[in-house]
Specification:
Layout (H helix, E strand, L loop, with lengths): L10 E4 L11 E4 L9 E2 L12 H25 L2 E8 L5 H9 L7 E4 L6 H4 L5 H4 L7 E6 L8 H4 L5 H20 L3 E8 L2 H13 L9 H8 L1 H15 L6 E5 L3 H15 L38
Length: about 300
Amino acid sequence: MSQLKLAPALTLGRFDLNQSGGIGLPVLMVGNRKPQGEKVMAEDAPASKRMKRKLYEKELRKLQVELCHLQQWVKAKNLRAIILFEGRDTAGKGGTIKAITERVSPRTFRVVALPAPSDREKAQMFFQRYMRFFPAAGEIVIFDRSWYNRAGVEYVMGFCSPKEHKRFLINCPRIEQYIVDAGIILIKVWLEVGKDEQEKRFAARINDPLRQWKLSPMDVQSYNRWYDYSRARDMMFKATDSKHAPWYVIRSDDKRRARLNCISHVLKAIPYKRLSPEKVILPKRSMKGHYNDAASLRRVRFAQERY
């Protein structure tokens, strides 16, 4: 595999949420398309100090409130959006997706995390297994890994041929143009974790029984092939970072900052307005047919109360 350079410049974008009063947070954009008013940050800029939990939870709540407003807007305007997350193992995709979805409706924000393709899916057109999960009106679909598996793990681990990989890199921007032309908002996020931080997270997965389920033989091999994945990433960025479907890179060594950065970016990428909710007044409960409904529970079996 020939080594290709990463797109030339990474630009720092600030997303100041005036509605929520949240802090402005940086997102890196692949390529040399520098939005007006944004500052440039060097690729090797030192990582900031870890964000404290108290500040993180304060800012997260503000952003999650805005996600609820976004949800109402998407439903009211019948918008369709796709947010796809890519990145190395342990980059923080799952935690970031959880932060986005924990306060919104799973009927509006649908998460898709596909297993390895079946024999039947392998015989289909490559994009077919993903398109069946695309959003209908009033939905946002979040892909926890996506069709970009072909540019990453499938290519590096030999699950696809070099010819199939090349064909994907050529056709992917065309298909994404079709997606965008169909009126779907497409947001592509790459979470970038450093080598040292990834090693710490792998060690935590090995030793922590609450995280061991995240560790697979494929993860161990990916750890061993850091630079193969780096080259595959660079090739992917060069071929698929387009004006109609740009890549945005978020540094994720500090998980808390990465989650806030990502939510802030999503809120900026899908324009919305706050809608005034209808005032809800609880009616009086009807006493028609009333009876001692607590007494009837004496005949059922309760789980043991251990706490």
